[in-house]
Amino acid sequence: MTARADLAATLYAIAFTKQPAPEADVGPRSPRIVARVGLMLGICVVVCLATGLVSHWIQHPPGWFAFPTDPPWLYRVSQGLHVITGTAAIPLLLIKLQLVYPRLFARPVIGTPLRAAERLSIAVLVSSMIFQLFTGLMNTAQFYPWRFFFTTTHYAMSFVVVAALLVHIAVKLPIIQAAFRSPLGSTEAIDNEPVTGERGVSRRAILGGSVAAAGLAVVAFAGQTVPFLRWVSFLAPRSGEGPQGVPVNRTASAAGVVDMARAADYVLTVVADGRSRALTLDDLRRLPQHDSDLPIACVEGWSAEARWRGVRVRDLVAMVGGDPDRAVRVVSLERGMYGESLLPAAFARHPSTLVALELHGEPLTVDHGYPCRLIAPNRPGVLQTKWLSRIEVT
């Protein structure tokens, strides 16, 4: 009877006695799932940073930097990855914030110096990443509801993100290491910091949902770079369509060059070491013509394949006795920040670099740069100067 009474009492206690709350670590907010979502986010951040630096250095090259001319699709892939990984980072950041937000309000607010460093790094990291992802997303749509210059601000803030991320990883490294050494489904406690402890969604479901959300974001935007995904890229600002099969970022009307581009007395002036040659559009058409199959890729992440036809830049340089080992400055009829660009010597003498007169077998439309424009491999669209008026060998 005593054994039966003891068993009955035990079963009653299990069924009806309130059990202690589970360890904070065993729920869906476990450091194990947080670390794994953080790893995916970190990979996106690293790829986005590296490709963003490449794009910035191409446009504002430091003396030590030189981007290759071949393969000609390299910049297209690089900038496409930049926008795709930046887009994938948005849902991953939101999921990670949802997983850790109870800890953001845990007491004490400051505590030890190590805790204070952690709290500060989190505040800087979260705010700078939100800023970078929001402004980057707006840039893909060419929508700028602010007064600062996007390019330099975005570049500077990327270093703030990296610095805050490194501090955060350094502070959390013991927890991160323990989280990755332990299986995802383990119930062993890792971090003793209190959390709300709500349950109901498994860690594997959260991890799978994170992958699915990032994948959906990629598919929604990748079509502006990956042609076979265009039919499902429902959020891509550019579809790959446009005049002559290529999108247009800046129209001739917006640049204020319509009348000058269509003027009957238009000439392209080529200059080197005091020697110059003025070429009309008919003169350019009489010169040897060459075809180049080059993608045009813009910093907003869109790109499109195109066949261009025109005169090689190196032939125009040779016409005025220019040094092929010098950079070439190309000047547009447009005035302003992007009214000219500097073409490094390796690009200027490349056989695919053209003063293009035709696109897909037709004369350029005025929005694509009529009467002529620069097209070169591995150059951002903003540096593929349109409405050329002058070429100078530096």
UniProtKB/TrEMBL annotation:
Pfam families: Oxidored_molyb (PF00174). Keywords: Membrane, Transmembrane, Transmembrane helix. The keyword Magnesium does not apply. The chain crosses the membrane at residues 37-59, 79-99, 120-141, 153-171, 205-223. InterPro entries: OxRdtase_Mopterin-bd_dom, OxRdtase_Mopterin-bd_sf. The keyword Repeat does not apply. Residues 261-394 form the Oxidoreductase molybdopterin-binding domain. It comes from the Bacteria. PANTHER family: BLL0505 PROTEIN, PROTEIN-METHIONINE-SULFOXIDE REDUCTASE. This is Sulfoxide reductase catalytic subunit YedY. It comes from Williamsia serinedens.
